[in-house]
Design a protein that fits this description.
The protein is α+β, with helices and mostly antiparallel strands. It is built from nine helices and four strands, in the order βββαβαααααααα. It has a four-stranded mixed beta sheet with strand order 1-2-4-3, covered by helices on one side. Helix 1 packs parallel to helix 4 and helix 7 packs antiparallel against helix 8.
Length: 290
């Protein structure tokens, strides 16, 4: 199975007096680059989550976000009162900050109430939070990998279709080569006869043969076919194919450039230019694969 480097998944779990929210997304990157945006009460998750991501994913710039939202207990009739001790602690922290940064904006009531532990019933035990977070992240990671696989499957279809079109163009070019070379030899020989009247026919044939060998693109056509077969094989095999396919698109582009530069027939040149366009489209799509 082929995986895209683009993916997204989000999940939440009700912990009673708080809602645990996890989110993970990724975009293209040459390497595996993992970043975290975690609430203070969830900092302990960074290392275990990093390990779990590394076990399942090899490339991509990944951002993982986790946060808690306090919520009232359902059916709870008691009044929620702020913790005096936590308020005093927060006041001391604010005083210390404003002593250094007097221009700092004061905390609002809403910000104070959202501070962990200010409301007596908005805390979750470390054991409960740890177990719930790891369980939820395992489910989240499964969905995230599945989303990358779905995107990868769509990309594989697009790439295989592009490879098929390029294969058709290469197949169209191959039968044109003998007639193109013959016509070019005849034109070149005629020009040589006009330019050098005293040159013997054998010398003309030799000169034409040497130059015709230089413009023969049969080898480029053969390599293009070989590279396209390899691209199709890699796509159908699956796995982490991005770097291999990126290398193959470079080789395809090299052969298409040579084909265009050596071509002496308008039809072959047109095919070479169409191949270059398709190869560039292929390269852009390959950049999305893990």
């Amino acid at each position: 199975m082929i995986h895209s480097m683009t993916g997204y998944a989000a999940a939440s779990r009700d912990l009673g007096n708080a809602m645990l929210n996890l989110e993970i997304k990724s975009v293209n990157s040459r390497y595996l680059d993992i970043g975290f945006r975690l609430g203070e009460e969830l900092r302990f998750l960074e290392m275990p989550l990093r390990e779990k991501i590394g076990e399942r994913i090899s490339r991509g710039k990944i951002e993982c976000r986790a946060y808690l939202l306090a919520q009232p207990m359902q059916g709870s009739a008691h009044e929620r009162t702020p913790s005096v001790a936590r308020l005093a602690e927060l006041a001391q922290l604010e005083t210390a900050v404003r002593a250094v940064l007097p221009q700092a904006k004061p905390l609002s009531v809403a910000e104070v109430l959202r501070w962990p532990g200010v409301l007596a019933d908005d805390t979750v035990s470390a054991e409960t939070l740890h177990g719930a977070a790891l369980t939820l992240f395992a489910e989240l990671l499964d969905e995230f990998v599945a989303s990358r696989a779905r995107e990868g499957a769509k990309l594989a279809e697009v790439l295989l279709a592009a490879v098929a079109r390029m294969g058709d163009h290469v197949g169209d070019a191959e039968p044109l080569l003998p007639a193109a070379l013959t016509a070019y030899r005849e034109r070149l020989a005629a020009k040589l006869r006009e330019a050098v009247a005293n040159l013997d026919e054998e010398r003309i044939r030799q000169e034409v043969g040497v130059f015709a060998a230089k413009i023969d693109v049969a080898e480029e056509i053969a390599r293009l076919s070989t590279h396209l077969d390899e691209v199709e094989r890699v796509l159908r095999k699956g796995g982490a194919v991005g770097k291999r396919l990126d290398f193959l698109t470079q080789e395809l582009n090299r052969e298409a450039n040579t084909l265009a530069s050596k071509s002496v027939a308008a039809q072959v040149t047109a095919i070479a230019l169409e191949l270059k366009l398709l190869i560039e489209q292929l390269r852009e799509q390959v950049q999305n694969l893990e």
